[in-house]
Amino acid sequence: MNRVSELRASRGDYEGSQRAKSIANKLERGLGLYKEIWSIGWDYLRNYAWTDIDISSSMEMFRSVSDLNQILKDLNELTQLKSGKERTDWVLRNYQKVLLRCKSLFGKLLQVFVRSGPLRDLVLTLQIETQGDLVRDCLELGSNDLKGLIQVFNDLVVQFSGRNNNGRGSDL
Known about the structure:
This protein is mainly alpha-helical. It has one domain (2-161). Helices cover 80% and strands 0% of the residues. It contains eight helices and no strands. It has helices at 2-10, 14-28, 31-49, 55-80, 84-112, 118-131, 134-141, 145-161. Helix 5 runs antiparallel to helix 7 (134-141). The longest helix has 29 residues, at 84-112. It is globular and about 50 Å long. The relative contact order is 0.14.
């Protein structure tokens, strides 16, 4: 994310640079990040885990897992390319597709996480950054950071998305 911040600053996007730097600082704090993860986890438990979620929200959650998996597949394909030219060609061919998947993903997640709190704030922040060209910046840099963030987010969604008929969580 520091590289994204530097890229944005070099283009004169100082506001976007500061947002990326803020995210990088949160990720680099190490144990300080656990407080935020704890807040997000507690928000999930309080607002979603012990309540009945309607069928449409459950379906959106499962559809979001599909989007996440496809985004990870795309990013894996990109990271396998060796030369800068191959990566540039890949980005030119696939950027719109990846961007649309990201927008679709965040739209679905916002339909699931409807209550205000740290979890919804996280999804909103990621949605804003996607609209602010985070995907393009990461693809341009060939960064594995976005892939890592999406993998962590995917693991969390998969872990917490299982529901049985009683509305209680189940392992997938």
